[in-house]
Amino acid sequence: MAKILFIGDIVGKPGRKVLREVLPQWREKYRPDAVIANVENLAHGKGVTLSTLKSLDDLNIDAYTSGNHVFDKYELAKECFEQYPQLIRPANYQSLKVNDRQVTVPGHGYYRFSKPVMCHCERVHPSEVIYYPDKIASSQARALAPRNDTADGEPGHYVNQQFLVLNLNATVFMQDQYSGEISNPFLAVNEVLSQQGQKGDIIVVDFHSEATSEKIALGWHLDGRVTAVLGTHTHVATADARVLPGGTAYISDAGMTGSRDSVLGVKKGNALTKFLDPNAKFKNEPEEEGVLAINGALIETDDKHRVVSIERLFQEITNTK
Predict the structure, then answer these.
(1) I need a labelling partner for 195 at 20 to 30 A (CA). Which of 143, 264, 275, 302 fits?
(2) H helix or E strand, kind and range, residue 249
C-alpha cells in the first residue's frame, strides 16, 4: 500500500512559507510514502532558482515538477536542472528560445526514484524485503523488521517501491505561453511510457494545462496505464477528483499553494490594473499579505498498485510576519 502526496503550484515566498508550515503536519497526519510538488512558480512567482530550491531541501520532497514558466529565469533555471536531478520539466518541450536565441532545453521530462513502502502481501520474495530505518522519515518511523505488525494489526513488510514521475505540457492555449515548440502531449507520453515504464511502477503524471478539456482527455488516454493524472497550471483546485474506471486517479487541477487573497497568486491590484486597462504593463508580483493556502491531492494504492482513492487536500494559515 502506498500513499502519494502531490502539492499544487507553489507561488513565490508565500507559497514556500505555507508549504514549510503545513507539509510537516500533513506528513504526520497522512503519512505519505512519496511527496511531489510543482515548483514552476517557486521564485517570485515565475521560474526556479538555486536559492529557492535549496530552501526546500530539508522538507525532503522526492520530486519537483514544473511547467511553462520554469525557464523564465533561464540561466538560473539551468543551474537548478544541473544540480537537482529530481527537478523535471515537461517531456514534450522540443525547443526553447531565450532572447530570440535558440538554446538547449535543460533537464528531463521524467524522474525515477524508489522508497520503502509497507506491503501487506502474504507472499513477498525475500529479495524485496528491506530493513533500513535510517531511510524512513521520522514521521513514518516504525519498528522495522522483515516481518512485523502494522498499525492496523495486519502483518506486513517494507518493500522497495519504484516511482516514476512524468511531466507534460498541454498545447491548447499554451503555445503563446512558452518560448519554444511544444509537441503533442498524447504522443509524447506514449513514447516516455514505452521507454521508461516498468512493471510494478507507481506512475504519476503532472499535466500542465490551460484547457480542462485537454486535461480530461489525457486522463482518459492514460486511464489504466498510470497511477495518477494530476492537472496543474490554472491555480484553481477543481471539484472532480475521482478514480477513473480503469483505475487511474484523476483531478483537473490540484490548485495553488500561496496567497489565498490574490489573483492566482498575484497582487489583486496588479491584476485589476491590467484588466481595466489592457494597454497597462502587467507586474507579476506575488501577494504576500493576507491568508495563505496550500492545495494538493493524496492518492492511495493497494498492494497490487491499484488506486484505492484520491482526496483533494486544502488548508489555510494566518500569514504572520
Answers:
(1) 302
(2) strand 249-251
